Amino acid sequence: MTGIDVIDNDSILVPWNLECSDLFSSCYEFNTHNMACWFDKELEKKNSARMLSLIEQIKNRLNEINDGSFVVENLETERLKNL
Fold this sequence. Notes:
Elements: H1 5-8, H2 13-25, E1 28-32, E2 35-39, H3 41-65, H4 77-81
Antiparallel strand pairs: 1-2
Helix pairs in contact: 2-3
């Protein structure tokens, strides 16, 4: 996923990352609404509370395991809060 072993091999992070990714990916539809790729903004809003919760858990876990080999930059929380 990231190429950073301490993150990619963390048994706590992996399911949270996968769930968050699945929630975001579920907003995409292909060959619908007369478009090749359509993004369902209403579904994203519906999923945003769970995604925000997962992101918070992920951030906390990253802080716990950070050995100084990576920097966390969170670009999603504010965007999701503003939906």
